[in-house]
Amino acid sequence: MILIDALYINNSGGKILLDYLIEEIEQRKLKVHYLLDDRIVGKHPAISDNSVTFVRANLMKRHQFYKENKLNFTKILCFGNLPPTLKTKAVVYTYFHQKLFLEIPSNTHIKSKIIFKMKAAVLNLLKVKTDFWIVQTDAMKQLLIHKLQFGSAVQVLTIPFYPSLEIAKKTTNAKYNYVYVSAGTHHKNHIKLIDAYQIFYGSSDKKSELHLTIGDEFGILQDYIKEKVNLGFPIINHGFVNRNALKEIYSKASFMIYPSLSESFGLGIVEAIESGCEVIGADLPYMHEVCEPSLCFDPNNVDDIVAVLKSSVSGKFKPTKQKIHNQLKDLLQLLN
Same topology for domains 2-158 and 177-322, yes or no? Predict the structure, then answer.
């Protein structure tokens, strides 16, 4: 039997990918057992003939599960970045998609830095418990090999996958609308984007809007957005949105502007491209792995973001070119 261990996945992009993976596994009728975070009970796709264990997401609970079931599986896919806590007889694939375990932006809050460093230490201890690593881009592959100092026998496979959105018809008034689909965590860099947009809008012909998706758990950031809205700036925060609503947001935008300081992939970038948006992106390796953006900027420089916003209005940019595509079939083939 196959184990899908996604114990630490409960929100954001990882949850979108997990839902897609479950849907495809169930559709193909693969025989698996799921180990899932108890925070997503009732919040996942339908699971018909397969079994599920819901556990509180911590190392001790996960270790107990492996201790009790280490002989029950022939293949294991660890989808939450960490290999098993003990060595099993199964062939183990670990899908790694959290760059912050390997490389922390310098302006990250001290509390977050400590948490990520602790998780990185656990990752380093468990790295010998997997047979294969899977990542979404070649840049992540090189970073993982460098940071964890693998021996030559370790195999790291690059297999990106993501669910495609059904493309909604573009609205006719979308020309100068910008969208940034992302949670509000600090490294996503919303403050600099908002500050840059405020300057840009004040000096432009005032025909644009900036659309964001900041959920209620980021109250301080939501308050900052409300301050700007009260000053007359057209910043529309949709909050957390489902996939159907997301299609409509993309349909009303011409540009995805993506200032994140750290990404292993950047699901929103691919979604935006496939929805007909051009990408204005941070000039960082993850961006150039996913696409050739129409315009690039230094994500730490507000003035640079303002400059590319002005260039987007003037039409001085090239079309975005997508470089990464869905390879879910390759991932599922490994599990067969």
Answer: yes
**CA separation for the pair 127, 149 (Å, rounded):** 10
Residue 298 confidence (pLDDT) above 80: yes
Collapsing DSSP states into helix, strand and coil, what is residue 41?
Answer: coil
Rounded distance between C-alpha atoms, residue 115 and residue 138, angstroms: 26
Q: Are 2 and 335 in contact (CB under 8 A)?
A: yes
- End-to-end CA distance of the chain: give it in Å, rounded: 10
CB 94 within 8 A of CB 122: no
Q: Under DSSP, is residue 239 helix (H, G, I), strand (E, B) or coil?
A: coil
Domain 177-322 superfamily per CATH: Glycogen Phosphorylase B; (3.40.50.2000)
Sign of CA dihedral 271, 273, 279, 282: positive
The pLDDT tens digits of the residues spanning 253-288 come to: 999 999 999 888 888 999 999 999 999 999 999 999
Give the homologous superfamily in CATH for domain 2-158: Glycogen Phosphorylase B; (3.40.50.2000)
Residue 143, pLDDT above cutoff 60: yes
Separate counts of helices (H) and strands (E) for the chain: 11, 15
Exposed / middle / buried, residue 314 (Cβ in 10 Å: 0-12, 13-18, 19+)? exposed
Measured from the Cβ of residue 166, the count of other Cβ atoms closer than 10 Å reads 9
Q: Where are the domains of the chain?
A: 2-158, 177-322
* Mean pLDDT across 129-144: 89
- pLDDT (mean) for 105-132: 82
- Angle, alpha carbons 228-231-237 (nearest 5°): 35
- pTM over 0.85? The answer is no
